Amino acid sequence: MTFVVTEDCIKCKYTDCVDVCPVPGCFLEGENMLVIDAATCIDCGICEPSCPADAILPDSYEEAAKWVELNRRYASEWPVITRSKPAPEDAEQFEGVPDKYANYFSPLPGRGSASPG
Length: 117
Ligand code: SF4
Ligand code: F3S
Hints:
Oligomer: single chain
Distance between the termini: 32 Å
Strand content: 5-15%
Strand order of the largest sheet: 1-4
Shape: globular
CATH topology of the domain at 3-82: Alpha-Beta Plaits
Number of strands: 4
Bound molecules: iron/sulfur cluster, FE3-S4 cluster
Number of helices: 3
Structural class: alpha+beta
CATH architecture of the domain at 3-82: 2-Layer Sandwich
CATH class of the domain at 3-82: Alpha Beta
């Protein structure tokens, strides 16, 4: 088992999860969401309750299954993020919004830990 970031992260991107994770390199940053690298994650589960948007789930959950491939794919494309950064100003407006993947997902990489932005 591992943990995955679901579409609930899209445009919320609070990054609280990054600060609680004990393993540097677990989280990768896209333009408007993060993913977890299953090969690095030690399945500790600490990040799951840390997310204000409830975007992190065990991959064994039925609703998480469709996000496993997305996490796998972008874990090899996006840069590592090792510390939190400010959430988007309108993050709260996107909490719980349905169909965020279809409407807002960006495959572009974020800036990772190289930049505070
Ligand atoms: Fe990091 Fe643990 Fe979450 Fe895996 S389950 S991403 S190791 S905090
Ligand atoms: Fe996303 Fe939640 Fe982390 S919104 S960036 S999974 S704290």
